[in-house]
Each structure stands twice: as structure tokens, then as C-alpha cells.
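Moderator note: this is an archived Q&A kept for reference. The question asked for a predicted structure of one protein chain; the sequence and the answer are reproduced below.
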Amino acid sequence: MSTCSVHTIQFAEQPELWQQLHTDAGNRTVFSSLPWLRILAELFEREASAVLLLRGDRPVAGIPLMMKRRGFLRATPPLPITMYTGLLLVEDSRLWMEDIPLLLRAVERRCHFASLSTVLPEQLRQQFVSRQWDVRRMQNRTLQLHDSDTLWQGYSQSLRRKIRRTSETGLRIDSEANPQTLAECYNESYNRHGILPPIPPVRIQEWLTKLRRQGLVDMYAATRTDGRCVATRAMIRDGDTLYDWLAGSNPPLAPSGSHWLLHQLLEKYHAEGCTRFDFMGANTPGVSDFKRSFGGTVQNYEELEWYRPALLKQVNALRGRLRMRQRGLT
């Protein structure tokens, strides 16, 4: 017999329930916090809500539904540059495991299409599979931030050579870089390949501005002696974990400027108490090579999708191919 009940909340009306779950959840991150989700909903025009599993008055599990309506369809598309938000859970699995189907059923009733990203234990993964969700195992790379010598020895030989050469060019770090600089460098990273960025630079600039206003992001730029920007990075600190949230570079100005900048930031944040660095995905060729050169370990996470009716899966695949073509990727 179920000991839990399911409730749907709007963040604007009952934020305290989500906040309580976020405080108690063992897998919480900054990306599942109210400030992050509220900014994302405002910027990308989503309806910010969540489905919660309550045991008595206490939320023990929950899924945020950042809804976007497309005609009669209710969809929760993937969240831009946001991971680990798909499912929040308190650590005592006895409180929620047997009632997870209630939570998933509520999402399936509310959504024609839902996309979630999270790290799942195998038992929970099978719950999604058994309910006909598409479950794709993805890869991420993380580093344990040790002392400078240990960190350096974990780098590939070619990376160490690149950093040494770049260190001799006189680059400096601007720790007060502004959102416009990062948005322009982000845009250039795509333009030099003749590809449209997935998020317009003006939207990235607005996003960075809102995040900095909330104290959620640190922004850096590596610049030459003539003042020209060669690489940028936006870092998110969450407790002792550091996330590599957004990056841009202009290699013609300094071929290894991005490598040098990240190395400098890893040393800086380690000195400030960070013990873990998260690359936020390692699934794109080229970019994955860059991340692998820093060492670390590969960890898995899941991307989960639900379609009702099943025909939407084919429609979504066609829309995805069209977007790729428009960006010049096919």
C-alpha cells in the first residue's frame, strides 16, 4: 500500500516545498535550485512547475517541469546548458523507491513530451525503462582537484607543452570580465566553423547578467598584452564542486589560450577549497579531446525522454535534424 501522494506545484505559488526538497535531497546541485530554475524559466519562457512525491507533508522526490506549450502540446524540452535537474531524491530510498511509478505517471499525464537529465542508480533506471521512457547513457568527465603538482601530472604531455608555451606569451586573466565579452567569444567559437550557436549571443549575455546579479556565476577572460580577448570561461561554484558552465575561444589570437586559462582557474579554485571539477558533459568529438587531455575520470549520466503519442518521437527527430541543418551542422 502506497505511503506517498503526488502533488503538482507552481514555483511562483509554493516555492517552499521545492526548497525543502532541494535542501533534503542528496543529489541536489545549483542547477536544481530555485534561483537557477526561475532565471531559466524567465529567460526561455517556460512555465516553472514541479511534480512532487510527498510522504505525509514532506517531499521526498520531485521532477521539475519547465513547460513550454506548442499548440495543444505540453512539452518539457531539454534545459539549455543545465544538467542534473531531472530528478531530486532524499537519500533514504525506503521513503520513495516503491512509489516512484506514481511520480512518473504524473509526469506522463501532464506532458506529451518530456526530457530530463540526471544521474540514476540502476534500480531507478529500470523503472524508467519499464515505463517505455527512452534512456540514453551519456558521458561526463570530472577531476579531483589536488595540489598543483598532482594536478599537473594528471595532464597529458601535449597539454603541459601547450600551457608552458602559452605562459610565455604574456597573457593575463581578467577576473571581472563582463557578460558582453563572454557572449562575443562564445559566438566566435561557433562562427569560425561557420556554425550558428545553439543559443543566440544576445540571450547568452542576458543570461550571464542575471546569473551574476544572483551571485551564481564567475566570469573570466584571458587577454593579450594588446587587450584582445583570446578565451573566456564562466564557472559555477556549488559548495566544493566547480562546474565548467560556458566557454569561448579565439585560437587564431592564441592557439592554446583556452587550455592555459582553464589550468589557471583550476589552480585558483583548488586554493580556495574546491575539491572536484565537473566538465558538464564529454560527448562531442573535439571538445571531448580537449577535456580528456586534463585527465580525470569518466562518469555516466542519463538523458531521459517520454513521448505521448509515440509519433512525437519521429516528429521530434525531424525537428532536430532541421535545427542541425539550419545551424550548418549537416
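Archived answer notes: The mean pLDDT is 92.
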